[in-house]
């Protein structure tokens, strides 16, 4: 489960008893990496996954005990086939995984709700778990730690990347749906109000107006992903004239090579431009083209994350090692910025 969906569920259903499962360490190969999380409800419902489905049933058997005792648990899985035939045959990953189970209550619950508020205000929040023999010390910060303690796990809750789709035609519908599931914040920009309807784009935001109006209002920035595909030459051309003067994370353009060359005639192509947009998979039709474009966005997002952090992980999490010993007072504390109205 991506962090935004996780926090949405925690916040929306705050009164429902739940347990958070998080991969905190991986040795060797695994289906998901450190930081991957999912939620278990004491009612039996689960949201998200941390494996192809073979670990969840075992973890579900532990949920009631974690919630009723209010104490966290670590669960270790050895997925090497030669050492653990059952798990090895089920997954075939050949790695070792440590999963942390935590009751979503008290300070942890408050910090998860705070992280959700920060994400909605386009800010990062770092959640830290410092492990002691009998408890976890939770803290949070607006900045990343360098070296704080000998047994600290860091998770960065980052705002969703914004993807602006210029063009509200039918072929944008499957692309928007996929991008929402990939944790993008999607904005549909078009001059045709009758196409910008929640019935067509259920979880998107809308801005209605001509090309210049939409660009000026949206103010695309360096972390934004933009897809241009209205099928109207003059509208797409105007958008490209404006966008290529800005620094973006990604600018994809729908169309054949011939059409793309016409659109860019006299316009320079920055290195973030992908035209024609999408990974070459021989895509035909709106659904396959959407998969192709979404795959390209995933690739670009992973590359940018690695450039920034030097690591490529599901929830941008890590163990932070240092030399400080156990504190005399290990009680839960938190430090974080104040959000107006929260």
UniProtKB/TrEMBL annotation:
Residues 17-77 form the XdhC- CoxI domain. Coiled coil: none annotated. InterPro entries: MoCofactor_Util/Proc, XdhC_CoxI, XdhC_Rossmann_dom. Pfam families: XdhC_C (PF13478), XdhC_CoxI (PF02625). It comes from the Bacteria. Residues 164-297 form the XdhC Rossmann domain. This is Xanthine dehydrogenase.
